[in-house]
Amino acid sequence: MDYKALIEEKDGLRLTGVKNFHPRHVFECGQAFRWDRLDDDGEHYRGIVAGKVLEVKREGEDLFLRHATREDFDQGLRRYFDFGRAYTPLKKRLAQDPCLKEAVKEGWGIRILQQDPFETLISFILSSNNGIPKIRQGIRAISARYGRLISGEGDYAFPTPEELSRATMEELYGLGVGYRAKYIHGATAQVCEAQRLKKESQKRSLTAEEEEAAALDLEELEKLSTEECYERLQKFVGVGPKVADCVMLFSLGKTGAFPVDVWMKKAMDYFYQVEGKSLPRIREAGQERFGTLAGFAQQYLFFYAREKKIRIE
Predict the structure, then answer these.
(1) What CATH number does residue 194 fall under?
(2) Where is average pLDDT lowest: 28-32, 67-71, 122-126?
(3) Which residues of 275-306 are buried (b: 16+ CB within 10 A; e: fewer)?
(4) How many Å apart are CA 229 and CA 224, to the nearest integer?
C-alpha cells in the first residue's frame, strides 16, 4: 500500500505518507483527458471521476482529495488511483533494465489509472489521429450534450451507454468529432446491445449470433486473458490494436498491454534499437521484454522521452 493513513477532513480526504504519486506524472502521461492543472508546479488538479468533481493536491508527503469521502475512496477511488498496488517493487524490477532505469527515476510518480471502461473506450476512439486538445474538447462536448450536470460550474458527467445511445450520428458529427462520430455511435450501440443480451440470457438461451454480440459486455472483458480481451475489444467498430491496448491498460487492469503507435515504434527504436518492424511486432517485442509489466514500461518510456525532449521523429 503506497500510503500510510486515510484521514477524513471537513472538505475532503487526506492520504498521508503517499509514495509513488505525483499529479503531473499521473495526469499528463496520455492516459486520461478530464483533468485540468490548477497550478504551475503540476501538484494541483481538478477532474471528473465517476460523475463527481474532484480536486487532487499534493501537499508534501500527503495527497489531499477535495470533495471525496471515505465511501468514495472505498467504492471507487482506491481502484481508480490503483492504490491497491505497491509500485516500489515493480519499479525496482523495471529499473534492472538499463534503458528503463532513468525513465523510472524521471517518472517516479506515475500510476496507471483504472477508469470507467465505457468512458475509456469512447475517449480512445476519439484519440485516433487526434491531438489531446481535440480529444478533451470532444469529451467535453459529448458530456455537455448527453451527460448529467454535476456542478454549478457547468461540469457534466460522462454519459452512460444508455444516455449516449440517444445520440444520432448526425448529432455527434455536429459536436466536431469528425469521422469518429460513426465509430462512437456504433460502439455505443454494441455496448448497449451486449448489456441487453446479458439480461436476456437470464431468461432464455441466446442464439450463436446473440452470444457473439453479448460477448462484448464490458464488465465481462476484465475476466479474460490479456490476448482474449485484446482480440475481443477489436470487435468494436473504430477499435484497432492501439485503442484496444489503451482500453485494457487504463480501465481493465491488463498491465501486460503495450499500446503502440508510430510514435512508440520510433521510441522503441531509440531506446532498444527495435528497428524496421511492424507495429504488431513492436507490441510483441515490448511484451516479450517486459511481460506483465509492459504497460508500466510503456508509460515510463513515454514520459521520459517527452520530459527529456528526445527527438525521435
Answers:
(1) 1.10.340.30
(2) 28-32
(3) eeeeeeebbebbbebbeebbbbbbbbbbbbbb
(4) 6
203 within domain boundaries: yes
CB under 8 Å to 213, separation ≥6 — which residues?
A: 190, 193, 194, 197
Element of type H or E holding 218: helix 218-221
Is 36 inside any structural domain?
yes
User: Of 8-12, 78-82, 101-105, 309-313, which gets the smallest average pLDDT?
Assistant: 309-313
- Indicate the residue among 41, 66, 84 that finishes a domain: 84
Note down the domain range covering 53.
Answer: 5-84
Domain count, the chain: 2
Rounded Cα–Cα distance for residues 139 and 137 (Å): 6
Q: Three cell numbers at 133?
A: 486538445
Is 264 in contact with 282 (CB distance < 8 Å)? yes
Inter-residue long-range contacts of 280-286, CB under 8 Å, 24+ positions, other chains counted: 280/241, 283/241, 283/245, 283/258, 286/258, 286/260
- The secondary structure of residue 75, as a DSSP letter, is I
Write the DSSP symbol of residue 77.
Answer: I
Contact 80, 114 (CB under 8 A): yes
pLDDT of residue 276: 67
| pTM tops 0.70, yes or no | yes
The phi, psi pair for 296, rounded to 5°, reads: -65, -45
Which of 63, 84, 105 terminates a domain? The answer is: 84
CATH number of the domain within which 12 lies: 3.30.310.260
Distance CA(13)–CA(64), nearest Å, equals 6
